[in-house]
Amino acid sequence: MGLRRVATALLAGVLAFSACTSAADQPRPTTSSPSTTTTIEPTSTTTSAPPVAPTTALDPKGSYAVVALTNHLPTYGRTVDGAPDRPWVRLHTTRDYVTQTRLLASSDAKLVLSYSPSLITRIAEAVAGNLDHAAIVTAKRATELTSEDRDYIDEVFFTASPDQIERFPRYRDIADRRRAGRSLTSSEYRDLQVLFNLAWTSPLLLQEEPLLSLAAKGLNYSEEDKVVLLEAHQAAMAEFLESLIFLTEEGKLDLATSPLYNPTLPFLIRNRMDEDAVTQIERGAAAVNAVLGVAVEGFTPRGGLIDQANAGSIANAGFEWAILVATEPTQPVRLTAEAGDLLALTADNTFADRVATAYYEMNPNAAALDVVRYIEAAVADRPGEVVTLRADGTEPWSRYADSGVGFLESLLRQLSAASSFSPALASEVASAIPFDPGPFPPLPDSYLSEADELAAWAYLGETRRELLRARQVGTVTPEDLGSAYELILQAQDADWYWWFGDERSSGEDAYLDRLFRGNLEEAWRLLGSMAPDWARIPLFETDAQIPTKANSATPGAIEIDNEIREAEWFAAGQYEDRGSDLIRRVSYTFDEETLFLRVDFTSEVLGDSAPAFDLYLGAPGASGSALSPDGLPLDFEPDRVVRWRATNPVKVTGVQPYPGQNTGDADVVAGFDGDTIEFALPIAAVRADLRPGDAIDFRIVDVSGGPERSAFPSAGRGKFEYPNLQQGTPLADIPDQVRDDYGPGRYTYVVDSEVAAGTYDLAALKVRRLGGPTEADPDDVGQVQFEIEFQEPLNNPWSAPAGFSHQT
């Protein structure tokens, strides 16, 4: 089947597939609307028989290795036009999934490849022409990008591993420029549009035209180059889907899938969501069958985990075998259920752990040899042994310098050349070797441990109970009930809980957090109820926004009156943000007793009684409400608020507890000249024991005209860091060359999206003597202060108690 033919067939399948779409799938008026995947009812699906593979006679006394790669991604949101608002389905296909099928096609090995139904569905949608928003923005002329387009590019187009960026020097230079806070030219944006997509392209595709020439070009790309690139990506996705059928027919591939939205099935059973477990299993099979037109026989549940109660549903959905993860892998065993037998092959996590954490640091051939030796040790002196290996086929490859191509190519070659065992398909094992019925295999316990994960699951449970209540009351239409249920099923996706918490980061944690809560909030709306407050409060703490300009530790003399003197604020820190309708800049500085603030408005407000804002403050240890009175998320828990109103005369309500009653104004001094206001806030009114290095979180909410409208900073809370105001005696001031952060010559950064290049690059060292003997205290020995400056700002993505994570 040619590419044109498979694309046409997939288009027909997706159109039929979309006819069953629930109302929840329709675009919503947000840039990151709750996401959905097509609804498929098993009873309405017609599929063909599985592709017939060449007959393979397995020797029951032989030894075999079944190797499986499981692939899945979250169900991302959609734009108002219905386009996926993230490119990861397309880009993981063009980088990882095409690599898997191409290497398998050119080898003599055999693999089990599993793709979640929601993932296969969205790949098919992309092949049928529903491009993701990143592709749409890539196709735009660089000179015609809007401010929203540039913001999106800044947010998404630098999401790549250091190895991906370093492959293209121009990409690295643009990333460095962006980290330095410099604006990009149209030419740089055009190059970035191309290089981001090239960095997420399989090295196998970059070795052939037309992408070979594009990669070699390196910079100064044209608008026509972008067209060539996107067409190559479209062709690669169509090739991938075609290869799944072709490789199955060739007897090299077992195609498997998971429940519809890839939940951890034991969680559903444990939390009395048995109905949902059956729905996820049955509709998952129907979705893949509808898109590919074949009946998939293999089942790979998330984490390799099922509950004994799931076995019958899995067999009833047409699955013949499943690959599970056991605490102690056993030989395959047949699980007898009312609907029929299900062959369970079991693996441990050794292979998965080494692929994710070890092999990327090794020579590819040595890493592949380690896998072969692991299998050889397992089958030694044990004729008839079947060894099953299972690993994630999507997430690990960003850690590999070549996106895993070298390791996978060597692994397939060495598997097919092994003498003590043979690679086999799970379907061959299931049909050729008579395994007896046996006990349920010993699967590891599954649990959620971190507070964010537990909170997310609690939100899901509360929403599920609201669905049951709405069903009983009977006032919600069947269409809205179905749409709400679809969103609940999506919220059961284990990927949400995998990325929540401090153990790991997706690089887009805040986005996934918003999308997860947004889906549940939309479910409550469909059910005719107001979602609880948690729907508007982030699950986990995010980094404070970084000031546009740092504050000088030298206190300035700020005179608060109705005249604004620019010279007084020269050394002050600044936040600038174009996302607020009312405020364009906030400046801040300190003396030992006072926090000085200056707010510059977007236009003159003198004579207009409508402008008003509330300034929320929270020092370390603050515990208040993370929502404003009207429910606007503040991104932290403030315990103080200052309210400003442009009445005549201007009214300032001083530092007050929040939430709480007015207890009398603290001594706040304010000055106003029509388009700028200055404040002097007593530090003791915010926190009496504030120490140097402590930060006061802040956010300003625009309440002009009554209803809350926007917040400053728009992307989240800012912070006023209290400096060390003791000048001391300078002992040393040593600058250091930047971009020399490689230790003795070969040190490299860990592969983590939270650790940017430059994080450990020393920029300066300052040493001061503070204090010392005085007439009042002759025994004071004083202190020596070391101030270390890094090229990158100190961030705290892992919530370290020191206030920064990477350098602790």
Write the layout of secondary structure elements.
Blueprint: H1 3-18, E1 64-71, H2 88-105, E2 111-115, H3 117-127, H4 133-139, H5 147-156, H6 162-166, H7 169-179, H8 186-199, H9 203-206, H10 211-217, H11 223-249, E3 253-257, H12 265-270, H13 274-292, E4 298-299, H14 311-316, E5 321-325, E6 333-337, E7 340-347, H15 350-357, H16 364-379, E8 386-392, H17 405-417, E9 422-423, H18 426-432, H19 451-473, H20 478-491, H21 494-499, H22 509-526, E10 573-576, E11 583-590, E12 594-601, E13 612-618, E14 640-645, E15 651-657, E16 669-672, E17 676-682, H23 683-686, E18 695-702, E19 710-712, E20 718-721, E21 729-735, E22 762-770, E23 783-790
Parallel strand pairs: 1-2, 1-8, 1-9, 2-3, 3-4, 4-5, 5-7
Antiparallel strand pairs: 6-7, 10-11, 11-12, 12-17, 13-14, 13-18, 14-15, 16-17, 18-19, 18-20, 21-22, 22-23
Helix pairs in contact: 1-3, 1-11, 1-13, 2-11, 2-17, 3-11, 3-13, 8-11, 16-17, 19-20, 19-22, 20-22
pLDDT < 50 stretches: 1-49
Q: What name is given to the CATH topology of the largest domain? A: 7-stranded beta/alpha barrel
What is the strand content? 15-25%
Helices, by number, come to 23
CATH class of the largest domain: Alpha Beta
Please state the CA-atom Rg, rounded to the nearest Å: 30 Å
Average pLDDT reading: 85
Largest sheet: number of strands, sense, barrel closure: 9 strands, mixed
CATH architecture of the largest domain: Alpha-Beta Barrel
